[in-house]
Design brief:
The complex is a heterodimer of chains A (219) and B (240). Chain A is mainly α and 219 residues long. Chain A is built from 9 helices and no strands. Helices cover 81% and strands 0% of the residues of chain A. The chains are: A mainly alpha (219), B mainly alpha (240).
Chain lengths: 219, 240
């Protein structure tokens, strides 16, 4: 089927692939933001002294962490239109799936971050007369966040790779765009090699950046 | 929300059989991939801790390559690209004569991908032991190979039981990606039941419960192993 490696097909499909890559970035950005907010709230619940709340948050986290992401994507792809009562398109279903799934992982990261803040800091905040909210917002979370930055970013890189799983519901992300060209022009080698190279370079740069940051920001 | 419940679909034939066979394939893919991941990962982890620079670099290149390409893309590279870039006879064998091509491709792909993670754990385990033990082993006259086999690896493995458990559960969950190249494992089968019977809720629930049950069983089992193999005075590396 092949007659040499055709660079032309890669060059010609750059605009199409760029559209796909933008969707990949968009999905990653929204899922990171949503997952971080959800994960922080979950972590606060999990660390709460009110037992039912911490139990519920723990159950949520263990539930999502035991499931394959593909199954979660299928679940929401099936459930969301059913709950809303009309077709909503793959994008929103996938977005909800990623956000809820990632929240479970971010919860554990944020929890570890909060627990890494020394107890004395919390007592000092309380001694100053700060409320729980103020203490969390101005004392604990800023320090926790600083400890967590490297691992949060690493999780972001993993998520960036995981967004390729939207393939199973056919959203036009980077991989699916390349897949379309690959099958249309029968250029599997060129397109898959390009996808692998682009992901590799982006993720490697990301993880090297994280390592650099880690050395600079270590408390 | 309008939905016709029919939980009985899960215990009707052929659907019950589909779930059972899907679960069987999930287990078969995960276990075979884990064997590759464990041995290959251990070898690469050891390479990264040796004194020989070339081995360390080779190990690092392996880990960075397999960690920075999405698993799904790796799956496609193994399945679609590899047979085309190999010499013709080998490529033809992969495409035509290899038994269970989808299964073995998924196993090799998952195994080599997870090996990168196992390698990092093994490296961390060996590094945690510290140089003292390594030097002590060499000082009593063990060869480097004996030092790894009798001292560093046995202790290292005992320290990394928790992260290895989560890596195994990772393989188990990631085996669902095999559906993209046509292995009818658990997720694929339950999705198919959903499409055939319009009882997606019931079939996905079945899959979810099975994944949960396996995860919790493995975790409970490994926690016992962890307490039994714990080294007094050493904290095992927490699962990440």
């Amino acid at each position: 089927m092949t007659d040499g490696f055709d660079l032309g097909i890669i060059v010609r499909s750059v605009p199409f692939l760029w559209d796909g890559l933008q969707l990949t970035f968009l999905l990653t950005a929204i899922a990171v933001a949503g997952g971080l907010v959800g994960g922080t709230l979950l972590a606060l619940c999990r660390l709460s002294s009110f037992a039912p709340l911490s139990f519920a948050a723990g159950a949520y986290v263990n539930f999502f962490r035991s499931m394959p992401l593909i199954l979660v994507i299928f679940w929401f792809y099936f459930l969301v239109p059913l709950v809303v009562g009309r077709p909503v398109g793959g994008f929103y279903s996938v977005l909800i799936a990623f956000t809820m799934f990632e929240a479970a992982y971010y919860c554990e990261i944020v929890r570890a971050g909060i627990q890494s803040v020394r107890k004395g800091q919390i007592y000092a905040g309380q001694a100053l007369g700060l409320t729980y909210r103020q203490n969390m917002l101005y004392v604990v979370l800023p320090q926790a966040l600083r400890n967590m930055v490297p691992i949060l970013l690493t999780q972001g890189i993993i998520l960036f790779q995981d967004t390729s799983l939207v393939y199973v519901v056919g959203l036009h992300d980077f991989l699916v765009s390349a897949d379309i060209v690959a099958n249309r022009d029968n250029r599997l080698i060129e397109m898959y090699a390009t996808v692998a190279a682009v992901y590799f370079v982006l993720c490697l740069l990301g993880s090297l950046g994280v390592r650099k940051l880690q050395r600079k920001y270590a408390l | 929300m309008q939905y016709n419940w029919n939980w009985a679909v899960l215990i009707t034939e052929p659907y019950l059989g589909w779930i059972a066979s899907g679960f069987g394939w999930t287990v078969a893919v995960s276990c075979a991939a884990w064997i590759i991941a464990f041995f290959l990962g251990s070898a690469i982890g050891v390479m990264r801790t040796t004194e020989i620079r070339a081995l360390r670099i080779a190990g690092a290149v392996y880990v960075e390559t397999f960690r920075n390409i999405p698993l799904l893309v790796q799956m496609f590279l193994w399945y679609f690209v590899l047979p085309e870039i190999l010499p013709k006879s080998a490529g033809d064998w992969l495409k035509r004569d290899m038994p269970l091509p989808e299964y073995w491709t998924a196993v090799v792909c998952l195994g080599t991908y997870t090996a990168a993670r196992v390698a990092e754990q093994v490296r961390a385990g060996i590094n945690t032991i510290g140089r003292g033990q390594h030097f002590a082993a060499l000082a009593i006259g063990l060869t480097p190979i004996q030092a790894y086999r009798n001292v560093l690896l046995p202790i290292g493995y005992r320290i990394i039981v928790p992260p290895l458990t989560s890596d195994f559960l990772g393989v188990f969950k990631n085996s669902s990606l095999a559906l993209t190249i046509g292995v009818l494992e658990l997720t694929a089968q339950t999705r198919q039941i959903g499409e055939y019977t319009f009882q997606g809720f019931e079939s996905f629930t079945a899959a979810t419960l099975i994944y949960l049950a396996v995860t919790f069983t493995v975790m409970a089992f490994m926690r016992r192993i962890e307490t039994r193999t714990a080294i007094p005075g050493m904290i095992s590396l927490g699962a990440k």
